[in-house]
Design a protein that fits this description.
Chain B: This is Acyl carrier protein. The complex is a heterodimer of chains A (about 90) and B (about 130). Chain A contains 3 helices and no strands. Chain A has about 90 residues and is an all-alpha fold. Chain A has one domain. The longest helix of chain B is centred in the last third of the chain and has 15 residues. Classes of the chains: A mainly alpha (about 90), B mainly alpha (about 130). At the A-B interface, helix 1 and helix 2 of A face helix 3 and helix 4 of B.
């Protein structure tokens, strides 16, 4: 499996953050964002091409999950906003 | 019967016409002092100083950044010691702040405060 390029990885990172924004529920939105950032940081030091490729394909499948779940969650959006969403 | 009564009453009622200067004649939605039209596409175009302030606030509030080092010309990776992931995060935060959708190609180019300010200031939908 070929190791993904730097731009591909950055693009995956951005796509995950974008899909995180789609969640109507504050907690899930923030969790998805936090989870994305944390796992990219965690794998920052990977140097072995095969493990980079494995992490990349894992990220891609997570992106599919996030996109699918964002659609599902938008059908069941919470009726009351989280207190964190309320602007003062 | 009722309409006859109505016109008889209305014929006797006098409502005084009050003119208190030109203020009443100006519709509420026209604010003369700024001469801005509310439905015009340019009414909410941001001031450059406003853009600079808001972008600097975003960058300063980023956890890894030392707020004292942030200037309008600062380069994210060279001057602030951030990495490419932080760069993406900052650009995403700017998108959220100004309610923009920056395409990936453009977002990749934004690597300093100066470029971010330039981009947002020239973006017609920034708000």
């Amino acid at each position: 499996m070929a190791s993904p390029s730097r731009t591909e990885i950055i693009s995956l990172f951005r796509s995950l953050l974008r899909s995180a924004r789609q969640f109507p529920d504050y907690n899930i939105r923030e969790y998805t964002k936090r989870r994305t950032i944390d796992s990219f940081r965690h794998n920052k030091t990977l140097s072995d091409p095969s493990s980079i490729a494995a992490a990349f394909s894992d990220g891609k499948s997570q992106l599919q999950v996030a996109r699918r779940q964002a659609v599902v969650y938008s059908l069941y959006a919470p009726e009351i906003k989280s207190i964190m969403d309320v602007k003062h | 019967m009722a309409s006859a009564l109505r016109s008889a009453i209305l014929g006797h009622v006098r409502v005084p016409v009050v003119t208190t200067g030109s203020k009443l004649l100006t519709p509420l939605w026209i604010n003369r002092s700024t001469s801005v039209r509310s439905m015009s596409s340019h009414d909410d175009h941001l001031e450059k100083t406003q853009v600079i302030d808001r972008i600097l606030d975003i960058v300063k509030s980023f956890p890894k950044v030392d707020p004292s080092q942030v200037t309008p010309e600062v380069h994210f990776q060279k001057d602030l010691g951030l990495d490419s992931l932080d760069n993406v995060e900052i650009v995403m935060a700017i998108e959220e702040e100004f309610k923009l959708e920056i395409p990936d190609k453009e977002a990749d180019k934004i690597d300093s405060c100066a470029l971010a300010i330039e981009y947002v200031y020239n973006h017609p939908l920034a708000s």
